[in-house]
Design brief:
Layout lengths: L2 H8 L3 H9 L6 E2 L5 E2 L3 H14 L4 H7 L3 E2 L4 E2 L3 H41 L9
Antiparallel strand pairs: 1-2, 3-4
Length: 129
């Protein structure tokens, strides 16, 4: 199938499919006219890629994990490298969540103080941006 058909069936824009190809995640054959020719299995592959991206994995991580990926769910075959990569990604997400939580708490504190000061003083004109 041509890239337009794959795009229609997966609801993924053609430019994104070309990006997946550039990242080594999708490997179409080339027709005699030079057009990309995607096999039926490409629909499953794109579905897997999208779901793994939704889980927060990078395209680099997906390329590493792809040999262990089966089905549209996708299901992952257990192997040490796979579990290590998933655990590392989870740890990175935990650190990002901790950072965002601290940032939110700091902003909440600024909001509280500013609201208290607003009650005590006349509002000033300060630049916001």
């Amino acid at each position: 199938m041509l890239i337009g058909e794959l795009s229609r069936r997966t609801k993924v824009p053609a430019h994104q499919l070309r990006y997946y190809e550039a990242q080594g995640l999708l490997e179409p054959a080339r027709a005699a006219n030079g057009y990309r020719d995607y096999g039926e299995d490409s629909v499953t592959t794109v579905t897997q890629i999208r779901k793994l991206l939704e889980a927060g994995l990078s395209t680099e991580e997906i390329a590493f994990l792809q040999p262990c990926v089966r089905g549209v769910t996708p299901d992952l075959e257990p192997c040490v490298e796979l579990l290590t990569a998933l655990r590392q990604r989870r740890s990175k997400l935990d650190r990002q969540i901790d950072t965002l939580t601290r940032s939110r708490e700091a902003l909440d504190a600024y909001i509280r103080v500013t609201e208290q000061n607003t009650d005590a003083f006349a509002p000033s004109t300060c630049a916001t941006g």
